[in-house]
Amino acid sequence: MNKIFAGLLVVLSTLSCPSAQVDQDWLREWQEAQTHRPAALKAQARIAPASEPGTPLRIGGEVVQPDGVTPEAGAIVFAYHTDGSGVYRARPGLPWRLRGWVRTDAAGRFVFDTIRPAPYPGRQVPAHVHLTVETERFGRQYGGLQFADDPLVPAAERESAKAKGRFTDVLDVRQEGKAQRVDLVLQLKPRGDF
After folding, report:
1. C-beta of residue 138 within 8 angstroms of C-beta of residue 149
2. Using the 8-state DSSP alphabet, how is residue 48 labeled?
3. What does the angle CA 41 – CA 42 – CA 43 come to, to the nearest 5 degrees?
4. Quick one: how many helices (H) and strands (E) in the chain?
5. CA gap 113, 182 in Å, rounded
């Protein structure tokens, strides 16, 4: 469990780090997941099947270049998260179960339809979605999101998130019919993380 938590900290970090500092267990899992990437990607995809138990969630996103303005068209965004009971796998040793990929459109936008993830069982880690973004020019980068209405998000993290303005990773949740929605803007760094 400590390796999983350490990997989470690495993934949620927004700081660039040399690949030698990347959690190697997480990197192996990430690489294994990429072997399942569909050959053709669109700007909208499902992570959790429509039949997955849980609250429906739509994640609307935009990827922009380091200038914070220019859209990054053609970026590959990979996302994965826990299920409604807070676990990633059907059983130990299997890959992350709820995962998906999109390719940003000409405006740098993408959409994932899924369910709202649950926090890890018996732990005080907020519910979250892991994201990575791959581009030719800016490499592979970490991203992630948490939910502003989650009481497990620490106050200090909420304050830090507010300072990020539109690039925050602690997102307000809106209700749209029977589904929840969050919108995020991922600002790329000049260099990749891993």
Report:
1. no
2. S
3. 130
4. 3, 10
5. 11
